Amino acid sequence: MQYDQVQHLVNDTPHTNWIALLHKPSLDHPTIRKLIHDLFYDYHTLPLPEVESVTRLQSTLGHAYGIEVLDTPLAKAEHYELECQMVGGSEAILNIFGQIRKVAATDAPVLITGESGTGKELIAQALHIRSDRSRGPFIPVNCGALPDTLIHSELFGHEKGAFTGAHRQNIGRIESANNGTIFLDEVGDLPLELQTYLLRFLQEKTIERLGSSKTFGVNARVIAATHVNLAEMVTQGAFREDLYFRLNVLNIQVPALRERVEDIPLLAQYFFQHLKQEGNSPARGFSRDALEYMSQYHWPGNVRELINRIRRALVMGEHKLITAEDLGLEEQLAAPLIYTLEEVRSRAEKDMLQKGMLASGNNITKAALSLGVSRVTLYNLLDKHHLRR
């Protein structure tokens, strides 16, 4: 029987723990060793004449049965919030852990930078938990998700009657974080006008609600995060230089998942164990090819993408071992590595359009001027690349 045949047999019996019985010389065969390592719960060598060997086999069978019983998920199993977990043993992530321990002891502002999905909010939470403010509130704000018309009120609050629809007083997020931590995610998306108010708070530790002339103090530590280069935005006039230096007192650069490949198997096993509690998946782990594909994949969505792919595999997979196909990685890695010149030009054009719009605060006139095109041309290019204006 070939390796693939045995793998299909094991995968088709997800609620069975397989134990191999074979003659000792068979263990010298590389394929058999790999097969037992990947697919079998345990193995025993033949023959089994001694009472001791039979007893050991009986014990193994009993243990395998017990593990199967324990593997049935409990209805009230403890649920873990995966987004609050930081796992890794690579030099890159250990360096982050060291920085967290040092930075948490201070009360200065922190700027966390890194790609989307790398876990910047996890680091902000870790800083808060390890600080003297841990008993106070941790208030996260996604600056990029708030409409421009509401962001002032959301951050600084408003008085009753401050604007149409303001039927009562509203306490802003910064005020809510008093004696705790305010986490400003995607701080680069803040409009320039709001940047001025935030700078004033950082300098004076006071705020003023919308519709009020009264200022009052708020004791909150500011931790900000962004996936864009704020220094470049300062150069382009899209972000205040004085605010940048106020926020960037302490800096933590979060590595992308592809920069700590050695953590991928550990992260995968960790998330697998916790996500499995969400349902009744037959999977017991990952096949060797799945782990190899995960190590080769680029992970543009970083840890967030890893979690989502494992969750999908547990829901959709029907085998005992999660495969690369279950994770949707075979198709991704089969994509061509060489692109046509037209594809390269299109990618570069889209990238510059996004940067131009970001730097101009989505102002068409400013973006067209910085990109060296007319407003009409810019509108046509935005439509061509399906970019939101």
From TrEMBL:
The protein's name in its UniProt record: Sigma-54-dependent Fis family transcriptional regulator
Transmembrane spans: none
Domain of life per record: Bacteria
Species of provenance: Amphritea balenae
Keywords: ATP-binding, DNA-binding, Nucleotide-binding, Transcription, Transcription regulation
Domain Sigma-54 factor interaction: 86-315
CDD domains, A to Z: AAA (cd00009)
Pfam families, per database record: AAA_lid_14, HTH_8, Sigma54_activat, VpsR
An individual GO BP term: regulation of DNA-templated transcription
InterPro entries in UniProt: AAA+_ATPase, AAA_lid_NorR, Homeodomain-like_sf, HTH_Fis, P-loop_NTPase, Sigma_54_int, Sigma_54_int_dom_ATP-bd_1, Sigma_54_int_dom_ATP-bd_2
GO molecular function terms attached to this record: ATP binding; sequence-specific DNA binding
Gene3D superfamilies per the UniProt record, alphabetical: 1.10.8.60, Homeodomain-like, P-loop containing nucleotide triphosphate hydrolases
Upper classification of the organism: Bacteria, Pseudomonadati, Pseudomonadota, Gammaproteobacteria, Oceanospirillales
UniProt keyword annotation of Ribonucleoprotein present: no
